[in-house]
Write a structure and sequence with these properties.
The complex is a heterodimer of chains A (271) and B (244). With 271 residues, chain A is of the alpha/beta class. Chain A has 9 helices and 12 strands. Chain A is globular. Chain B is built from 11 helices and no strands. The longest helix of chain B is centred in the middle third of the chain and has 31 residues. The radius of gyration of chain B is 24 Å and the shape is flat. The chains are: A alpha/beta (271), B mainly alpha (244). The structure holds adenosine-5'-triphosphate and magnesium ion. Chain A: It comes from Ancylobacter moscoviensis.
Chain lengths: 271, 244
């Protein structure tokens, strides 16, 4: 586990956010959030509904353009054009496309393309965005589907899969890009309780193989077990941050303590 | 009483108008579709300089009768000396091309709204997934939005084609002898409107029935996701995720 505050750090972080601000209209959702993840690190982002977790994650791949602050992926800062009186926008769409392919996102609602089979979903972006050889991509896609346990569904359409299977397919679709970073926005929140386990299992395996991941989740037990570091977001600021063992056992701030108890988590600290 | 021999005779004469009816339909629907696509893109562009002209076009052509539009093209274009001297005049002076142009302009207005509806029906999440996986806007439009929009709008579009088949009957008012034009001519010769119009109606019904079936077949072919899931390959159960 790497500490981004170490002086003279040897490695560029897989992702580094500095001073991210984002408003919708007059409502500022993120008030200057800084965050970094080293290669191989798994960072969970916790926080109450509306605290800005999704917005933060979407600022990383420019689905939302931050009003202030910088995002760098593997040391490459994303160019943003900001002019007074105008909404910020990406300065270089080609760069954004390239970095998005490196930092793929898994959505709460899967968002598999409904008109394509599962296999076609997996090869679509590698072939058309990364311009890789189709046959090679198909072979890799088959292997990825086997890995997430839905090889037999490759010729099915998303509508024919259960939520758990769809999310596993969506994770495989994100993996097919060979990303250096994966972003998960509440990957199990749209699932029936009995389907949550199969998806968490896939993510756990990814963590075990040393993938760099940022995971927004409400699954406290999972976050504690799988993360190298946990970030607690409260009303658009990082309220508390640290290794899961410490954070879950001894939350320092009242807000985190309250949040954990509302989520049904028993902390050792007296209330 | 229906005079059967006369009716069959009429029918065989009227069938002679079918090629012209179909030509008018195919030419106006296909060129109208291209114009409609451009109009729909203007509507969804988010740029008022493109959106408002398209809105006005659609408003004007949906708010006036096709017959009036046909008359304006047929009688109106010759008023412009520029057009009369242009290279296009050999076309514009033909009733045939006037009918095609008027019908195309008309269907473009309706189809533009159908296409726009199809484009807007594509779920935000589908587009976000495309962007999140690095697709550029044009690529996402071509690979994700357009195919989904097309499937979505096809049923309504088949309706529009059927309406166009029926609208071609109005071309008879500018001298064209398509099915209705031939029917009018037969009536003026035989004074037996009932048999003649029943014959004409039967022909339109047949054409439209075939078009509806064709579109339904196309819709089914394009929407495998709406059909039942393919039969399971070997194991009926999905395997559990493999242990890493
Ligand atoms: N596109 C938008 N337009 C306007 N307001 C928005 C938009 N997206 C988010 N917000 C607002 O920003 C705030 C933070 O939203 P965000 O989705 O980031 O929260 P979250 O922490 O992900 O919550 P949840 O746990 O419910 O997913 C909320 O108050 C929300 O209403
Ligand atoms: Mg959220």
């Amino acid at each position: 586990m790497a500490d981004p505050t170490l002086a003279g750090r040897p490695n560029t972080p897989a992702v580094e956010l500095a001073g991210i601000r984002k408003s919708y209209g007059h409502h500022e959702v993120l008030h200057g959030v800084s965050l970094a993840a080293q290669d191989g690190e798994v960072v969970s982002i916790l926080g109450a509904s509306g605290s800005g977790k999704s917005t933060l994650l979407r600022c990383i791949n420019m689905l939302e353009i931050p009003d202030a602050g910088t995002v760098a992926i593997q040391g490459e800062a994303i160019a943003i054009t900001r002019r007074p009186g105008q909404p910020p926008r990406s300065a270089d769409m080609a760069q954004v496309g390239r970095l998005r392919a490196k930092a793929t996102m898994v959505f709460q609602s899967f968002n598999l393309w409904s008109h394509l089979t599962i296999l076609e979903n997996l090869v679509e972006a590698p072939v058309h965005v990364q311009k890789r050889d189709r046959r090679e991509c198909l072979a890799e896609a088959e292997a990825l589907l086997a890995r997430v346990g839905i090889a037999d569904k490759r010729h099915h359409y998303p509508a024919h899969l259960s939520g758990g299977q769809q999310q596993r397919a969506a994770i495989a679709r994100a993996l097919a890009m060979k990303p250096s970073l994966m972003l998960f926005d509440e990957p199990t929140s749209a699932l029936d309780p009995e389907l949550v386990g199969e998806v968490l299992k896939v993510i756990r395996d990814l963590a075990a193989e040393g993938r760099t991941m940022l995971i927004v989740t409400h699954e406290m037990g999972f976050a504690r077990e799988v993360s190298d570091r946990v970030v607690f977001l409260h009303r658009g600021v990082v309220e508390e941050e640290g290794p899961p063992a410490e954070l879950f056992a001894n939350p320092r701030s009242d807000r985190l303590r309250q949040f954990l108890s509302r989520e049904g988590w028993k902390t050792s600290a007296p209330c | 009483m229906l005079d059967l021999p006369f009716f069959l005779d009429t029918l065989s004469t009227l069938i002679g108008g079918v090629p012209l009816t179909l030509q008018l339909t195919v030419l106006s629907v296909s060129s109208g579709a291209m114009l409609a696509f451009a109009l729909a893109l203007m509507r969804v562009s988010g740029n008022p300089l493109l959106d408002y002209p398209a809105r006005f076009y659609i408003f004007a052509f949906r708010g006036t009768p096709v017959l009036v539009q046909i008359y304006i093209v047929y009688y109106g274009l010759s008023q412009f000396p520029v057009l009369r001297q242009s290279m296009l005049w050999p076309f514009l002076r033909e009733a045939y091309w006037c009918a095609v142009i008027a019908l195309a302009l008309n269907t473009a207005a309706y189809s533009a709204e159908l296409i726009r509806g199809g484009l807007n029906s594509v779920a935000v999440g589908q587009i976000e997934a495309a962007r999140a996986l690095g697709m550029s806007r044009p690529l996402a439009f071509r690979r994700i939005i357009l195919p989904q929009a097309f499937r979505q709008m096809l049923p309504a579009y088949s309706n529009e084609i059927i309406l166009m088949v029926k609208s071609t009957a109005l071309a008879s008012t500018i001298t064209l002898l398509e099915v209705t034009g031939l029917a009018a001519k037969l009536i003026s010769q035989s004074y037996r409107p009932v048999e003649v119009f029943i014959g004409a109606g039967a022909i339109y019904l047949t054409i439209n029935f075939l078009i509806a079936r064709l579109c339904a077949a196309l819709q089914t072919a394009l929407s495998p996701e709406k059909r039942a899931a393919p039969a399971p390959a070997q194991s009926p159960e999905t395997e559990a995720p493999r242990h890493g």
